[in-house]
Design a protein that fits this description.
The complex is a heterodimer of chains A (about 240) and B (about 220). Chain A is mainly alpha-helical and about 240 residues long. Chain A has 8 helices and 2 strands; from the N terminus they run αααααααββα. Classes of the chains: A mainly alpha (about 240), B alpha/beta (about 220).
């Protein structure tokens, strides 16, 4: 019988990691299937938000992307090709943040500034402008680092550190809207300034959970393959 | 763990520096020292939510118009309703810039359709528009600012910015709460392209597109 406390701790962490992977897999499947079921809305998103105007290309993306999400969810659930899945997670997370950052920064950063102001977090114009000016580019930067595989854990840590407070303030605002307008929580739809236009709050919270879990997964040291420089500092070699 | 935190801090510091540099280099940059929202308070969430749900009742006693009117009064501005705006639009003084309309939306929306003869002033890039509106604002007897209407508060901020920066008496300044959405819904003429382009229409499509992006403007 093994009574080593470090082994017990490791086993607990493995169980947590397994549950997180299943949750992530389940969320990918759910989000993919919801896009399949709301095909017209997703097609509109591809055309208007992703700016894919070519009808054939936009239809092709709208038809295949949700099923790829489902497939990816199944990969995570079953634990097949975990290393490849981690690399895909890194690329996907990178692309999402590059897209969302660019969508906020160009061509009208003032739209994002207005949305940040709606949260009523800061009163100083300088601080508000600093958030509006730097945050979108910071997201692009972290996304690029993940995409090329530089300082992966440091970038993932920054993304997680941004996602947690953002999700909380979006949740707070959605609760306020639901309370004052008397509509069900999941029916609240507004532009949260997340870079994807108006979204239903429950869907947004699920998306942010996915992004947060992916960041956490990369933080554990996964997704090392095809990296330019996974870690900025020299890592200890375990013998 | 310590290494990850150190790497995270390094990424954050370099990222912040690069992000501010990217903003500085961007042609669409935000000026950090400028107050883009002068002299205003935020609208409560219920009034600013732009859900697409129909029949979502607002249980507050004050209508959005009353709230807007109160907020404008607080900022020393006057609310103009559609009747007043129509009268001002038909006022013969408008021909000689005695009555001036100012569109406070961005260039894209202005070109897609504006009140005929309206000047353009995008407060996020005042340096590009100030020379056009400065003289007319100083000589006009009445100035009407508008944007999309609804949640949009660009007209209000533009009015405060111009009033305070060039010293327009507050009695002259009006804000059209209904904005271009109400204007075009009422079937009133819309001018396309540049000011005095002569391309008039009363397309409600312009209103629809404005409405769709109302929360962004």
């Amino acid at each position: 019988m093994n009574t080593n406390p470090s082994t017990g701790k490791r086993r607990s962490l493995d169980i947590v990691a397994l549950l997180a992977r299943w949750l992530l897999g389940g969320l990918f499947i759910y989000l993919g299937l919801s896009k399949v079921l709301q095909g017209a809305e997703f097609l509109r998103f591809v055309r208007q938000q992703l700016l894919v105007t070519n009808p054939f290309l936009s239809s092709a993306i709208a038809a295949t992307a949700p099923w790829l999400e489902v497939l990816y969810g199944l990969l995570l659930l079953t634990g097949i090709a975990r290393d490849a899945a981690a690399v895909l997670a890194r690329w996907w997370l990178g692309c999402v943040f590059i897209y969302m950052g660019l969508h906020k920064a160009l061509p009208h950063p003032e739209y994002f500034l207005k949305l940040v102001r709606q949260y009523d977090m800061v009163t100083s114009p300088f601080l508000l402008n600093s958030i509006g000016a730097a945050l979108p580019w910071f997201e692009v930067y972290c996304g690029l680092l993940l995409l090329v595989g530089v300082a992966v854990r440091g970038s993932a840590l920054n993304l997680a550190a941004m996602l947690v407070p953002f999700t909380l303030i979006v949740l707070k605002r959605a609760l306020a809207i639901a309370a004052t307008s008397g509509i069900p929580f999941c029916a609240v739809k507004f532009d949260c300034g997340c870079g994807a236009g108006e979204v239903f709050i429950c869907h947004k919270l699920l998306e942010n959970t996915v992004l947060l879990l992916l960041s956490a997964w990369l933080l554990t040291g996964r997704g090392r393959q095809l990296c330019l420089r996974f870690s900025l500092f020299r890592e200890k070699v375990l013998r | 763990m310590k290494r990850v935190l150190q790497e995270g801090a390094l990424v954050a510091v370099i990222g912040a520096a690069l992000a501010f540099a990217a903003n500085g280099l961007s042609p669409h940059r935000l000026e950090l020292a400028r107050n883009y929202f002068p002299g205003t308070k935020l609208t409560p969430p219920a009034a600013v939510t732009s859900t697409n749900l129909t029949g979502a009742a607002t249980p507050t006693n004050n209508s959005p118009l009353e709230l807007l009117s109160a907020r404008l009064r607080e900022n020393g501005l006057q609310l103009a309703d559609s009747n007043q705006v129509m009268q001002l639009f038909r006022d013969p003084r408008r021909e000689q810039d005695g009555v001036v309309f100012i569109d406070a939306r961005d260039d894209e929306h202005y070109r897609a359709g504006h009140i005929p003869g309206a000047y353009h002033f995008d407060r996020f890039h005042p340096e590009n528009y100030l020379t056009n509106v400065l003289q007319v604002c100083l000589t006009a007897q009445q100035i009407v600012f508008y944007c999309n209407g609804g949640d949009c508060d660009d007209s209000e901020h533009a009015a405060i910015m111009l009033r305070d920066s060039i010293g327009i008496p507050k009695e002259k300044v009006f804000v059209y709460g209904g904005g271009i959405t109400e204007w075009s819904t009422n079937g009133l003429p819309i001018e396309l392209g540049l000011r005095n382009s002569g391309q008039l229409t009363n397309l409600t499509g312009a209103a629809a597109s404005g409405k769709a992006e109302g929360s962004r403007q």
